[in-house]
Amino acid sequence: MSDIDERRGVPEDWDRSGLAPWTYLNDELAELEKDTLFRRHWQLACHVSNLPERGSYITFDIVGERAIVMRGEDGEIRAFHNLCRHRGSRVLDKKRGVCKKVMICPFHGWGYNLDGTLRSPTAPESLPKLDKHEHGLKPIELDIWMGFVFLRFLPGDQPKISELLSRHEKEVAPYGAQDMVPVYGGYWRQEMKVNWKAVRDVDNEGYHVPMAHPGLHDLYGKNYYDEPIINGTNRSFGELTESPGHLWSVRHYKKILPDFPNLSGPNKRAWLYIGIFPNTVISFYPESAAFYQEYPLASGRTLQRGATYRYAEESREMRLSRYLAERIDKLTTEEDTQLIEWTCEAMESSAFDGIILSDREYGVRAYHDKLRDLLPVMSLPEAPAAGTVADTNAKMAEERAVAAE
């Protein structure tokens, strides 16, 4: 890769500093992030294949929100807040399942149709007359892109996810992800004792790959590059090198990976990643597709969640390739987890005085700039006084709006 290629989208003179350490350690800021970044941006809940029949559902909890995503009797996929309109109980308490005709709240037995409308409250004579639509489960905004189901809990400035990701459609469509099926049925999850932004920081640059990820470096080496965020999405691409590979998983993956006539050009032997601000990545490999995301439980606790999908008709070579790719990914995740923990530990050290970013880490800076744009308080070098983070942010946002007029 040439020096010009290595500087894709990187300005000649830019600020190489990152977010101040306090932004990774402050609980008040974490609450602001939940509202501004997670409730008001699209969140990937599942894939259409996780809802294979009428009445099938998954539940999805994130930053205090509880959702049901269900395929109705008419075949349509809808999302509702998982809150009974009576006393706020969960209506469905399992991670996934099938409701044949009605959702029954386990608290007092109120019933809801599969389209979310109120079917029958228990002892209706003891209640005022309730409208089935007005007192049905509250709907959540939903959109689908390439088979992936996204939710938005509160109104935001972004367009629909299908519009937001439209610039990637030409490249992604040949994978046929909308027709893939789950590999394991559910999702993997892991809790990490780190700030969620530290996970994004590691994931937003490939500078560390040669040193920290021998498997990935063996897989695509210098052929990997990241592109900066454009309108809330970014693209990363790693074309497999022609060398046979040194590590067992990589060597056999390169050897076994079959030809995929649905793909063309370098995508036949490459790993493609589409990042979606603020916290989601969808990966497209020749033999499979997957997603992973992270969201805050608190300032120092993060939950990661993801799933893998495969072609419905899978040959032996495709299955073996997928198995080997998962081995490489699992090792990479373990390596990244250690790095993320170390970087978060550093922020509490008396010796830590900030970071210096390489040109190859410009994606980290671009991501931080996006965060500062949405939450201007994050541009401060020191934390506001306790109890004032939200007010300080609101004041800074108002001052910025006035200055822009």
TrEMBL record:
It holds the Pfam family Rieske. GO terms for molecular function: 2 iron, 2 sulfur cluster binding; dioxygenase activity; iron ion binding. InterPro entries: Rieske_2Fe-2S (IPR017941), Rieske_2Fe-2S_sf (IPR036922), Ring_hydroxy_dOase_asu_C_dom (IPR015879), Rng_hydr_dOase-A (IPR001663). Its cofactor is Fe cation. This is Aromatic ring-hydroxylating dioxygenase subunit alpha. The keyword DNA damage does not apply. The keyword tRNA-binding does not apply. Keywords: 2Fe-2S, Dioxygenase, Iron, Iron-sulfur, Metal-binding, Oxidoreductase. Residues 43-151 form the Rieske domain. It comes from Hwanghaeella grinnelliae. PANTHER family: CHOLINE MONOOXYGENASE, CHLOROPLASTIC (PTHR43756:SF5). It comes from the Bacteria.
